[in-house]
Amino acid sequence: MVQSPAVSQFAPEVSRLDNAPIESIQATLQTISALGETERSEMERRHPLNGLRLYDQSEHLLLASYAMHSADTEGRLYPEPTHPYRGPYARDRDRILHSSAFRRLSGKMQVFTGEMGIYHRTRLTHTFEVASVARTMARVLRLNEDLTEALALMHDIGHPPFGHCGEDVLSEHMASVGGFSHNEFALVIVSELEQRYVEFSGLNLSRETLAGQDVRAHKAEAAVGRAPLLEVQLVDAADSIAYDAHDVDDALQMGLLSIDELAELAIVRRALDLIRDKRGFMPIHQLRQSLVHELIDLQVSELVEVSSEMLRQYEGHHHNDICDLGVRFHHGATLSTERRELEAFLFNAVYRHPRLIPVRDSAAKRLSELFNVLIKDPNRLPLRFRQRQQDHPLEKIVGEYLAGMTDAFCDQQHQYATGTSRGPLADW
Fold first, then answer.
1. Which CDD domains match (predicted)?
2. Domain presence at residue 48
């Protein structure tokens, strides 16, 4: 194959890139972006290691000094060769995205159950929304978007069926083995239960991604002393912002709340005032959608503004310096108070709504009955869970099996387990 003039001219620059000054790197990256698809493919074929080298250099240019740079990763539990054009956190993101546990999030409800309609969020739609908010903030703050997205996609992967009532049921039945935490279970899923590779169990994610999820599993400890990576903190903030705004949307659409009731809250009044200033009067369904947008935008904008100002003093610091100094993201005092007011209101007016309680109680009863059936007869567990009994208590194994289920699959197995059949239940 005859090498194109563009690639021929560019090739010597690639070999000198590692120690090149910033100006040369910038020019090189601009040259790459100007190449046509055929020329870029030819370049990658002739210089297979350049993709990753350019990846590291582009992070050096685009990310803040205190961001978690891919070149600084502590690697994986099971060492693997580096990928020619994907950094470690991009690989983590893709592994999570393609996992079966991630796909099952589509069948797990966020707050409400499938018996109450199909409009409201599932764990999957919520996860994508969190990832979108988190990526946006990471880009503005010049943090690592790949790591942020991997953490966001993973953050709810350990949730059991039937929302928070499912977690309550499992926590009660697993009290003798330390209870149940969906954040800790997420680590079990990606480290042990996912079976996608011959060489090892789990997804073999980077140590930074695993450590970020471990922070979620131990929030009280992480709130003091050494701070988590900024990317980890950002996902936690995005989760909270998206969660509250989308619960407002779901509750309004289902008729559990009215705009007038919500307007009693300071943060909602602020959002409504912004909407009226921008758009004037609008139909109620459009007002609902605009309210969700403004609630998210209001909180994201202030967090980015406050954080940008705070981080300005740390330019040049390494991510380890930031963690050692205990630097943490936060909203301003006024918005923090308003957010607490909103969350308290949602807890009482939505999560304890009379229409929701009997549905949750019914789901909790089915999950509890299924747990008891399996405790009494462990041979009804799928084979791989029976095999895990060699290393773990039975209550933990039963809890893991149930926690991995979707809402519909749990109901299906409950019907099978409490019927006339006495055979093993299906694996997920």
1. HDc
2. yes
Q: Are residues 52 and 177 in the same domain?
A: no
Residue ranges in 35-99 assigned as alpha helix (H)? 37-46, 50-62, 88-97
Any residues with CB less than 8 A from the CB of 200 and at least 6 apart, and which?
Answer: 77, 78
Instruction: Report if residue 75 sits inside a domain.
Output: no
DSSP string over 94-105: HHHHTSHHHHHG
Domain match, 49 and 98 both: no
Q: What is the pLDDT of residue 126?
A: 94
155 band by pLDDT with thresholds 50, 70 and 90: very high
Please report whether residue 222 resides in a domain: yes
- pTM of the entire predicted model: 0.85
Min mean pLDDT across 165-179, 189-203, 255-269, 273-287 is at 273-287
| Residue range 314-361, pLDDT digits in tens | 999 999 999 999 999 999 999 999 999 999 999 988 888 888 888 889
Structure tokens at 319: 């991510």
Rounded-to-integer distance, Cα 92 and Cα 305, Å = 29
> Do 22 and 148 fall into the same domain?
no
Neighbours of 99 (CB within 10 A): 21
Residue after which a domain boundary falls, among 351, 369, 402: 351
Q: Are residues 287 and 410 in the same domain?
A: no
What is the band of 26 on the pLDDT scale with cuts at 50, 70, 90?
Answer: low
Q: What's the sign of the alpha-carbon dihedral 184, 96, 156, 389? A: negative
* DSSP H or E segment with residue 276: helix 266-279
Q: Which string of DSSP letters, residue by residue, matches 115-174? A: GG-SSSPBHHHHHHHHHHHHHHHHHHHT--HHHHHHHHHHTTTT--SSHHHHHHHHHHHT
Residue 121 CB contacts under 8 Å (≥ 6 apart), including other chains: 109, 110, 111, 129, 246, 250
Give the DSSP letter of residue 206.
B
For the record, the structure tokens of 160 come out as 């059991």
pLDDT digits (tens, 9 = 90+) for 31-61: 555 556 566 555 555 544 455 666 777 888 8
Q: Is the per-residue pLDDT at 163 higher than 80?
A: yes
Least Cα distance to 193 among 402, 32, 9 occurs for 402
Tell me which residue range forms the domain holding 138: 88-351
